[in-house]
Every structure is written in C-alpha cells, then in structure tokens.
Amino acid sequence: MVMSQTFQQLLGSKTQKAGNGEAVVILQMRDTLMNALGVAHGGIHYHLCATAIKAAAGEGMLELECSIEYFSPLQLTDTARALGYVDRDGKTLVFAHAELYVGERLTAYMSAILLRSQEQDLFGEVVASPSMLGPRSRPDPSVVFALEENICDPKYTGSEAFLKMMFCYNLGSELVKRLKGSLVISVQLDEKYTDTEGAIDSSFFGIISDSALGLTSYSNGDKTVTIKLTTRLYKKAEPSTVLRCRADVTSEIGRLVYVDGSLWDNEALVGSCSGVFYRIGDESLS
Fold first, then answer.
1. 240 φψ region: left (φ > 0), alpha (ψ -120 to 50), beta (else)
2. DSSP state of 199
3. How do residues 147-178 score in pLDDT, each as one tens digit?
4. How far is CA 22 from CA 4, 99, 123, 228, 233, in A?
5. Contacts of 26 (CB under 8 A, 6+ apart)
6. Is 70 exceeded by the pLDDT of residue 282?
7. Euclidean distance between CA atoms 70 and 64, whole angstroms
8. Nearest of 106, 109, 65 to residue 85 by alpha carbon
C-alpha cells in the first residue's frame, strides 16, 4: 500500500533528526507560505515547533495543549530550524518544548503537554460550555471592549478578497461568516492533512486557529501580528470531515487584541484556542 502525502510533506518541512527525546525539523521559506503582510503565516512557526515536539516524543501521541510565543516573523529568505525536546516522560503524560531559530536568532518558543494514545479511550463525548456556543459575555469594566457585538462589518462580510491573500486559503479554507468581532472559517479535510498515523496532523489545528483568530483581530482594519497562541485538543479528528473554527474577540487593551475560538469536526467539539494579537499600524515587520 502506497502512503499518501502527509501534511508535513505538503508544507515541505523535513525532520533531520529524531531520537532520545530530541528532534530537529527544518523548513526553507517560500512564496506559498507567506501571508498578506509579506511574512510567513504564524501557523508555520506553530507547525515547525509542534512537528519537532511530536518527533521528539515519538509515535502515538495526542498533543493535548500547545502554547507558542512569537518573537519575530519568518522572512521569505529564511531557513527555519525547530529543536524539540522532551522535558518529562511520564506514564500517561509527556511534557515537552520546542525552540525555533533562524541562524542563532530565536523566533518562537512552544511548550506542550502530550497524552499517550492508549489513553485516548478516556475521552467520551466532549461537552461544549455555553461560552463556546452563545454570545460572549462582556469583560470586566476595567477592560476597554472596543467592538460592538453582532454588528455586521460590511468591509469584510461576504468577501473572499482578503482571505485569498492569507496562507490558510491555499489549504482550502473558506470564510463562512464574518461579523464585527466574530468569524467562522471552514475547511474540508482529506488525506493531505494527515500525519504518518493517518490522523489529522495536530499542527494543522494551529494553522487554522491562527488564521481564524488573526483574521478576527483585524476587525477594526488595522494590521495585527500574533504574539501568543494556545490550542487545546480534546480528541483526534479524522479525514473526510469538515473542520470549522469559530473565533470571537473578547477584549482590546490598547494595541492588544484578545481572541478566543473553538474547533469543530462536523458538529462535534474537538478543541479550543486562544490568542493575543498586537496592532502594528504602519510599523515594519522586519
């Protein structure tokens, strides 16, 4: 049986070394990995770090939670190198981290908690909290909430023009709904998004999360960049299903935009995500 192309092969990253709780993954940036800001999509940082962590931890792992901090963007001419390390290998849980470099420059740092696959049976039906389904409650009065809920933003609603400039569009993503401070992105999954074990590659959840949360943070028209992204997976998603990511701005403090999201496999909740974004205005991303 010939294995179909994996998601890692699709993106072009290569695992140079894996074993003894360590791994090295590299990727040469190229045009198709860039986003509308002229730098690599933030999900590329996530993919490299998550791939290095999974390679360091070994087969049969579910990445329960990954949290990545972004220090600088990846440029078109960069060759990125992710170093993955297992920090603690327990009976059920594995704790690991990854560092992403361009040369000697640290561009991102990810920490992760992984679950051994034999513990997958612990998961039953995932119950969504009301905050994942209904309108967001307003934050504490001390926090300035600049967006008005449920007000249509004509600049983006019904238009794919902006999304087409984003890397996620190249992976088949579609803009389903766009409101001011709220957005839903959908993608039809298939075998090209899978890992070597036949499940949807966990780094794809980071890419779709970064896309949905980041696009939502654009609600006031200013450019934003990802500062921090956290994803939590509750169960594995299978190919041939529709993955949706809903994102909602929860608050804005100065130039910082806080966004929460949820990930759905058809009608089943499979994960959640949250991000912090910085409005850059006319600042350079170099």
1. left
2. S
3. 333 323 333 333 455 555 566 667 777 767 66
4. 26, 11, 28, 24, 23
5. 13, 14, 16, 79, 80, 81, 82
6. no
7. 20
8. 109
Structural domains in the chain plus CATH codes: 7-118+145-279 (2.40.160.210)
pTM here is 0.84
Q: How far apart are CA 15 and CA 25, in angstroms?
A: 4
Burial 123-152 (b: 16+ CB within 10 A, else e): eeeeeeeeebeeebeeeeeeeebebeeeee
pLDDT digits (tens, 9 = 90+) for 92-131: 899 999 999 999 999 999 999 999 865 444 445 555 555 5
Residue the block writes with tokens 């740092």: 109
At 87, list the tokens.
């920090």
* Cα–Cα nearest to 66, from 45, 81, 39: 45
Least confident of 72-86, 144-158, 214-228: 144-158
200, 236 in Cβ contact below 8 A?
Answer: yes
Q: Which residue has the tokens 């409101």?
A: 179
- For the chain, the first-to-last Cα distance in angstroms comes to 46
- List CB contacts of 164: < 8 A, sequence separation 6 or more: none
Q: Which residues pair with 247 in a beta bridge?
A: 183, 261
- What's the Rg (C-alpha) of the chain? 18
C-beta of residue 213 within 8 angstroms of C-beta of residue 273:
yes
Tokens of residue 78, six digits: 């960069």
Please, what sign has the CA dihedral across residues 77, 211, 163, 224? negative
